[in-house]
Amino acid sequence: MNGLNVSDHPDGPARAVRHGAVLAVTSVALATVVSAMASLNVALPDIARDTHADQTQLSWIIDAYSLVFASLLLLAATLGDRFGRRKALLGGLAVFAGVSLAATFTTEPVVLIALRGALGVAAAFIMPATLSTITSTFPRAQQARAVSVWAAVAGASAVLGLLASGAALELWSWRSVFWLNVVLAGAALVGTYRFVPESAQPDSKRIDVVGAALTVLGLGILVYSVIQAPEQGWASVRTLVGIAAGLVTLALFVAWELRYPHPLLDPRLFRRMPFAAGSLSITLQFFAFFGFIFVVMQYLQLVRGDSALVAAVSVLPMSAAMIPSARLSPRLVARRGVRGPWCVGLVLVATGLFIMAGLSADSSYWLLVAGLVPLGAGMGLAMAPATAAITDALPPRLQNVGSAVNDLSRELGGALGIAVLGSVLSAGYRSHLDLDGVPAPVADAARSSLAAANHAGNATGNLSLIDQARDAFASGMHLALVSGGAAAVVAAVVVALLLRRTSRTRVSVDEQRADTVSAVARSAR
User: Fold this and answer.
1) Which of 168, 169, 128, 165 is nearest to 150 (CA)?
2) Alpha-carbon distance values, 450 to 299, 305, 454, 474, 489 (Å)
3) Distance between alpha carbon 306 and the CA centroid of its chain, in Å?
4) What was the pLDDT predicted at 204?
5) Which end of the chain is more exposed for a tag (fewer CB within 10 A), N or C?
6) Residue 463 CB coordination number (10 Å)
7) Coil, helix or strand for 265?
8) Whole-number Å distance between alpha carbons of 476 and 485
């Protein structure tokens, strides 16, 4: 892994490639963008109190990053392949560090939303360039090990981001989360400049600008309409027209991709049943997972009254269950075939969310643990075969496409999960508030978010308002987690149906595929 190769470099005619340093640098860059997806969830209560952001704005603060990230991922990967992955890393990391630094000085939620969107642009260039750099730099004999390290970093960074942010918030404000971004991105930027060689495919396919524009427009309209639905009304003309317009635009994207000779993503690939099943499963798994993280971090801090660090540590049983199940998954797949363990994993995800839907303001922590364990075990069981199904369904020449679709499915699922479950939470919270007799300014504050309700109740001495707001939040969380569990059930049913005609010999994993699944499973460690 630490061997040296000679490679062209923009700073000179040739220089030795230090593979260990390249892997370390790309891993830090990957950890920077992945941890940013989840880490800010721990800081939401502090952000709400400091910036006076309402519940809808909190959803946007989190989701602006994932939405832009997912929308631009395929285009950014294409640009990086065409003009140079090292350039994509340097530019993306520089923007990421600069925007994160700017975010530490803002006090306005709208500005923070815009800055999170800019971080999503930078992340879209960084993440695909990390994997492409590894596959283009490392000798074939070393690629499998390097990719397994990459996968492990991708799987662990979200949880590590929660813990690091929780620890930082014990000492400082929510701005410490962005300072962590600055430090990580700065270190990766210096390392990229020093150790990463340039690689590119200048003769690659033409850039599908129209397809990229349709993707951004369609997803933007759809997610905007969903997040704004609690304020506009789910049955309002504006909400229904917006959702319909987003879906029509995405349908136009599919139609364009079918006709364009060099599509960003060829829809015909989804005719391969394992590929379609894997993509849908990952999308819905992370729909439920990131929506859950968005909801539960607020519950732990604002309803239970836990500190940021305690809240982050409280979800560790999920990771503790995920590790052994991820290691067990490839063995079960090799013995039983893909379909059974995969679907059982998705059912366990749903079970965990349904259990936690019963949480209330005074529930025991052990009820939370009772849901976290099956949720983690299910994610571990289902994630490895879903990822392997995407990569195994494609020939070697399309493995970059498989990697991009895997990343896109995860980011798109996370963005939609935060949007939909956050919107359901907000609607349920507002509908269960009874503010008759409460002064208008206090009532308006209480409707905006639970953090504002807690502040208003403490300021006015109205403790019953705080209790009622916490109960209303728990009611909204119940609806959100039931919705997430339903998505996991749908995923299990669809996966079972898509694979029902696939013979056991086709879907069972032989020795080579078992190695592939094992490498993916290590991403949960």
Assistant:
1) 128
2) 10, 12, 6, 10, 30
3) 24
4) 60
5) N
6) 10
7) coil
8) 14
Q: Which 3-state string (H, E, C) describes 332-374?
A: HHHHHCCHHHHHHHHHHHHHHHHHHCCCCCCCCHHHHHHHHHH
Distance CA 222, CA 75 (A): 19
Please tell me what DSSP assigns to residue 304.
S
* Token pair for 310: 């305690």
The answer to whether residues 67 and 194 touch, using CB atoms and an 8 Å cutoff, is: no
Tell which phi-psi region holds residue 502, choosing left (phi > 0), alpha (psi between -120 and 50) or beta: beta
User: pLDDT value at position 43?
Assistant: 87
At 449, is the secondary structure helix, strand, or coil? coil
Give me the DSSP letters along 59-112: HHHHHHHHHHHHHHHHHHHHHHHHH-HHHHHHHHHHHHHHHHHHHTT---HHHH
Compute the chain's Rg from CA coordinates. Answer: 23
| Phi/psi at 295 (5° precision) | -75, -45
Nearest 5°: CA angle at 275, between 270 and 281?
105
Whole-prediction pTM: 0.80
Q: Supply the DSSP string of 10-45, one letter for each residue.
A: TTEEEEEEEHHHHHHHHHHHHHHHHHHHHHGGGGHH
Q: Give just the sign of the alpha carbon dihedral 147, 150, 154, 156.
A: positive
421's CB contacts (< 8 A; 6+ apart) are 287, 288, 291, 292, 294, 295, 480, 481, 483, 484
Q: How many CA atoms lie within 13 A of 198 on its CB side?
A: 14
